Amino acid sequence: MLKKLDNSQKAGNNHISILYPGLYLSETDTGFYSIGRIDQANIGSGVVIKMHPHINDDILSYFRRGKVKHSDSEGSEAFITPRKLMLMKAGKIFHHEEAVHENVEGLQIFIRPGKKDTSPEVIFDDLEEVHSENKWRLIASPDKEKTKLQLSSDTFIYDTKISASQSLGLPENPKPGFGYLLYVFQGTIVVNGSISLSKGESIYISEEDIVVSSEIEAELVLFVTNVKSPYYDGGMYSGNMK
Questions:
Q1: Which DSSP letter does residue 164 get?
Q2: CA gap 41, 26 in Å, rounded
Q3: CB distance 31 to 20 below 8 Å
Q4: Which of 4, 83, 180, 188 stands 20 to 30 A from 200 (CA)?
Q5: What pLDDT is attached to residue 210?
């Protein structure tokens, strides 16, 4: 089963485009199982988002351009860049501040935790390369043996940059009981030779393989979630907004 998610139900403003993936698939949940919300941000240098709380969200900061300084209530500071990703596991409650030092474009991804009110934690990961060219790279998972960025629900996040005139399938054979959400961060792609998706659009994939091709360079993010595993849907941003 394939179902395209276009931009018709997106929220946000000129700086942030907000995708609630469940709106296209369900009348009762704004999230797609453990995938609560995906924000694509384009924010200018000098903007400061003052200290603010997060509760029961796993938040992956995935920036492809720019530089943001992170400060939090635990006293830590670090710059998030295209080579340095951050996973903030808010748990019971956590406060942080973001200061944009260079114009930034990227994703803030709100994943639902496996359970509520855990201890907060911030994890950073330094990538060897900004992009993974024409192959899927696993950047976050529940398995600390596979990824430094360890999610607390049964969720996997991959990325790739596909070159012009190249094609690729899923990183593994589709698993029964798993849902796949393919998000176009940049460029335009064609799925299975007939379904066109452009920047900010997504496609839901269930129990079938696909072939992705592009006539131009494109950047993709793939979300994989176990639809039978537990997650907490009451998070401040990742939670169900219905």
A1: T
A2: 25
A3: yes
A4: 83
A5: 94
- pTM, two decimal places: 0.96
Euclidean distance between the first and the last CA atom of the chain, given in angstroms as a whole number: 25
Rounded Cα distance between 82 and 104, Å, is 9
pLDDT reported for residue 87: 97
Within 8 A by CB and 6+ apart from 113, the residues are: 56, 57, 58, 89, 91, 152, 153, 231, 232, 235, 238
What are the two backbone dihedrals, phi and then psi, of residue 41, each rounded to the nearest 5 degrees? -110, 145
What is the pLDDT at residue 76? Answer: 84
φ and ψ at residue 148, rounded to 5 degrees: -70, -35
- With tokens 């501040």, the residue in question is 97
What single DSSP character describes residue 216?
S
Tokens of 92: 């019971």
What tokens does 96 get?
A: 């942080």
Nearest to 63 by CA among 92, 119, 106: 106
Going by C-beta distance under 8 Å and a sequence separation of 6 or more, which residues neighbour residue 128? none
Q: What is d(CA 38, CA 108) in angstroms, rounded to the nearest whole number? A: 6
Task: Give Rg (Cα) of the chain.
Answer: 17
Q: What share of the chain is helix, strand, coil (3-state, %, to 5)?
A: 0, 50, 45
For 32, the token pair is 């797609």
Q: Reading across the β-sheet that carries 2-5, which strands appear in turn?
A: 2-5, 202-205, 178-186, 218-226, 155-162, 137-141, 149-150
Relative to beta strand 195-198, strand 188-191 is: antiparallel
pLDDT at res. 7: 83
φ/ψ (deg, to 5) at 69: -90, 125
pLDDT value of position 121: 92
